[in-house]
Amino acid sequence: MRQIWIIAQRELRMAYDSLTAYVLTVAFLAFTGLFTWLYGSDIFLMGQASLESFFSTAFWTLFFFIPALTMKSVAEERKAGTLELILTKPVTELEFLWGKFLGCFLHVTIVLALTLPYYISVSFLGPVDHSAVWCGYLGLMLMSAAYISIGIFSSSLSSSQIVAFLVALFVGVFFHFLFGLLAQSGGALGRFLEYLSVTSHYQSVVRGVLDSRDVIFFLSLVVTGIFCAGVVMIRRKFQGK
Per residue in 122-166, pLDDT tens? Predict the structure, then answer.
């Protein structure tokens, strides 16, 4: 656990040592703030104290934000030649990957924490369903965790950050809306595809219904993504790549 925390701290420090982290954070806050307060289904247009527009906007913004955040997590280490150096230390591949995951997750948590002024501002406009708001934030964090693991897996496949970004987006497209779209066919296959849809689980949590099946789904996706990344790294290690 100590090794995981050290790598997580290093990942977070490296993120904020670069301009990219600040650009992504400002872009996320600007985009979500714009559509929460001014355009589309904004709060003033809805005429009620609700963060529903924010959670709808953040749902899509994070879909693009997270692949951009995770694309260099493993790819940059391999390209710079620091991956082999790190793994010569008393650190296993899975500890390295979980450290990367925790660092990225903390980064997203910080970014989401910066949107809490939206919540505070809305609470002054009228009565707020506080449980729904906190469930909405929980839904964003669970979804983010799932996509971070997919992003890390994608980053483990190549030393190119662009390839990692595109692969993460490609895989994410299926979970984000294609499985839900294909689930409309109905039947047993439709129900299975509906279960694989991140959208259906996210919407369930955001509605304020905290079902253990939704939590298990997201956590299973996290474990699967990190496990697959570990398999890729171990395979490359034995192949000498």
Answer: 877 777 778 888 999 999 999 999 999 999 999 989 888 999 999
Distance CA 93, CA 11 (A): 15
How far apart (Å, rounded) are the C-alpha atoms in residues 151 and 66?
7
With CA atoms as reference, report the closest residue to 130 among 117, 119, 118, 141. Answer: 119
User: Which tokens hold the place of 77?
Assistant: 């280490």
Q: What's the pLDDT tens digit per position in 59-115?
A: 999 999 999 999 988 888 777 777 666 766 777 888 889 999 999 999 999 999 999
Tokens of 52: 């529903």
Length of the chain as a residue count? 241
Whether 116 contacts 29, CB under 8 Å:
no
CB atoms within 10 A of CB 136: 25
Q: What is the DSSP letter of 178?
A: I
Calpha distance 82→219 (Å, rounded): 29
Return the closest-CA partner of residue 171 out of 185, 184, 156: 156
- Round to whole Å and give the CA distance between 71 and 145: 15
| Terminal alpha carbon distance of the chain | 27
**pTM, 2 dp:** 0.90
